[in-house]
């Protein structure tokens, strides 16, 4: 079993990166992934750290983009208020909330599955993320 510079197994550190992405938020993920990329040699571990970061930031970007929809409706509502009108689509807020909930659940399921696979240095193939990482990292 290969060990990291910290003295723990590579699989355990990989799982820790995914769990940091799941439970810790951006700062612990960035610190742990940064450590792996700067100080560890194992290519699987480096790809795992990048994959965790890509997943978290991709879902954050999707959530932010979807969050623009109520903002746009609010903008038009404020514009109409200037002219003593009203512009509202109440169902959109419910749809956006539903989509954000689905995204949050999906992200959590993916990160948990990856953390469990990481314990055995396994890999859960997610074509979109793997292709994106493959374009920017050595195989």
Number of domains: 1
Write down the overall geometry.
elongated
Largest sheet: none
Distance between the termini: 22 Å
Give the number of helices: 5
H/E element sequence: HHHHH
Compute the gyration radius: what is it? 20 Å
Helix-residue proportion: over 70%
Structural class: mainly alpha
- Sheet-strand content, in percent, reads under 5%
Textual characterization of the structure:
The protein is mainly alpha-helical and 139 residues long. It has one domain. Helices cover 78% and strands 0% of the residues. It has helices spanning 10-24, 26-39, 43-82, 90-118, 127-136. It is elongated, with a radius of gyration of 20 Å. The model has no long low-confidence stretch (mean pLDDT 92).
Keywords:
5 helices; mainly alpha; 139 residues
Précis, in short:
The chain is mostly helical and 139 residues long. It has 5 helices and no strands.
Protein topology:
Layout: H1 10-24, H2 26-39, H3 43-82, H4 90-118, H5 127-136
